[in-house]
Write a structure and sequence with these properties.
15 helices; alpha+beta; 7-stranded antiparallel β-sheet
Length: about 500
């Protein structure tokens, strides 16, 4: 009953929409091929076959076999008949790619960096400090916070020869990503969750609520299900294409998510020059000039025809400007060439999301849940946990990059890719991630707001969602001594 949804998700992950919808989808396919999500997913699956948890790996293989058996035993969905599409085998990489696409939808810091760069190139001539202040007013800090002191990026970009003519290409890239729904992030949206300890619950046991505000679509993003097997009894919302319950409850614990919105993406201005004849272009690095990684992707188009797309990557990641209007970014006098590379934590490092998901579904206590989350990779989430015996906890698992103290752009603007001070210095250790357990007030809640106080020593983000939903939740939770299902249902439907 979700066959067409699975087929669409597979084509999004692979960047193969034009095969189904024609040339109008080429722009989306270009962006997705440059991002390279399915290639990363396949590499991840290759690694999991020798290093992953055998039981979780077997579960995904069984899930894929079930999808394929179902497809073979029924008529094609009407959408596939209309478009003339045939079934293809569902693979583990298709599942893993959709997990990465969900992480993409819940991230989007690169878009904010690109917007700040475009403002820097467009604002009328004025003293640098005045123009930088104007940009801070247009893209302000979180209420009560101050943006970090930035280096003179206007002077930096001027020295590189970047000017207004370049903005037309950057505008094309940003507009195309937004039009295709690929800009990432949950701007203008958000999610809520809250947990009440037994002492604040009319039932005598904890209450946990979750309201993930993701895009309205038909069929729904979620698939409500109950899974029963030896040693497993769990129910909640799962994502079609993935074999485990994403948010829900088992017989002992319940868990809920909202998006943290960490700064896990950085844009880099990569300086390029021609390589030797017949060789890829070279990119400037702290160690000198090195060859770019380069491959050619074939984009097939419904009705016949195809397009060859050159896809390049630097040490930081894919050159996403290759997905824009085309051609490198030229300095004002044309003597220097640049491209924009995206570094994104979700594309890096080995991970076993299957083991983590299975361990979450099976956890019998808050302690077991927190232990399972040690392996959580991307996206970082505000996770609330509740145990039948009364314990509630908050944890924000996920991989968050650490930036150097002398990084004077603080991940807020595209940085020179050849300057080592703008490179990441590893990831926040699990023990350093924000957390809270069994608070005396008897409740925990998140709504994409800033999740830590001024005393937290690490950087998570400068781009939190505004705190008004969180303030309303806190107001309502504190309005009565004990809550029940009816009062929490009313809070989920609250529109103030």
């Amino acid at each position: 009953d979700r066959g067409w949804q699975l087929e669409t998700q597979r084509r999004i992950g692979q960047g193969r929409l034009a095969e189904a919808f024609g040339a109008s989808a080429l722009e989306t396919d270009r962006f997705l091929r440059v991002l390279g999500v399915h290639r990363v997913a396949q590499r991840q699956w290759d690694w999991l076959q020798t290093h992953g948890d055998p039981e979780a790996r077997a579960a995904l293989l069984a899930y894929c076999a079930g999808v394929n058996a179902g497809w073979r035993s029924q008529a094609r969905p009407p959408e596939m008949l209309i478009l003339g599409l045939s079934f293809e085998e569902w693979t583990p990489a298709d599942s893993l790619a959709w997990g990465l696409m969900m992480a993409w939808d819940l991230g989007g810091n690169w878009n904010q960096e690109l917007l700040r760069l475009r403002l820097a190139l467009q604002l009328p001539a004025a003293p640098a400090d005045e123009r930088m202040q104007r940009i801070n007013e247009l893209m302000p800090a979180y209420p009560g916070d101050r943006l970090p002191a930035l280096g003179n990026y206007l002077q930096l970009y001027a020295e590189l020869g970047l000017g207004r003519p370049l903005d037309a290409k950057l505008e094309g890239l940003q507009a195309a990503a937004a039009q295709q729904g690929l800009s990432g992030g949950v701007e203008g949206a958000g999610s809520n969750n809250w947990a009440l300890a037994a002492s604040r619950s009319a039932t005598g046991q904890p209450l946990l609520a979750n309201d993930p505000h993701l895009k309205l679509q038909a069929p729904a993003l979620w698939y409500l299900a109950r899974l029963k097997a030896p040693g497993l009894q769990v129910a909640g919302g799962m994502l079609p294409g993935l074999p485990f319950i994403t948010l829900g409850q088992n017989q002992r614990v319940a868990w809920a998510f909202t998006n943290t919105g960490p700064d896990t993406q950085d844009l880099y201005l990569e300086e390029l020059k021609d390589g030797a004849p017949g060789q890829p272009a070279q990119v400037r690095t702290p160690a000198g000039w090195e060859a770019l990684s380069e491959r050619v992707e074939t984009l097939r188009i419904k009705g016949g025809g195809s397009e060859q797309l050159r896809v390049r990557s630097s040490r930081h990641g894919p050159l996403i400007s290759d997905a824009g209007p085309g051609g490198d970014l030229l300095s004002a006098r044309g003597e220097r060439r640049f491209a924009l590379a995206l570094r994104w934590a979700a594309l890096e490092g080995e991970q076993d999301p299957l083991r983590v998901s299975l361990a979450i579904n099976r956890a019998g206590s808050v302690d077991a849940l927190q232990q399972a989350l040690r392996g959580w990779h991307s996206p970082q989430q505000n996770m609330l946990l509740a145990e039948k015996d009364g314990d509630i906890a908050y944890l924000a698992p996920g991989r968050v990059p650490v930036r150097r103290a002398d990084n004077d752009l603080h991940g807020l603007l595209p940085a020179p890719g050849w300057e080592p001070r703008y490179d990441w210095q590893g990831l926040l250790p699990f023990e350093a991630l924000p957390r809270e357990r069994a608070p005396a007030r008897g409740w925990l809640a998140t709504a994409n707001q800033k999740i830590h106080g001024a005393d937290y020593p690490h950087h998570i983000s400068h781009d939190w969602a505004l705190p008004y939903r969180q303030q309303r939740i806190e107001q309502q939770l504190q309005a009565r001594e004990r809550h029940d299902l009816a009062s929490l249902a009313a809070l989920q439907a609250d529109t103030l």
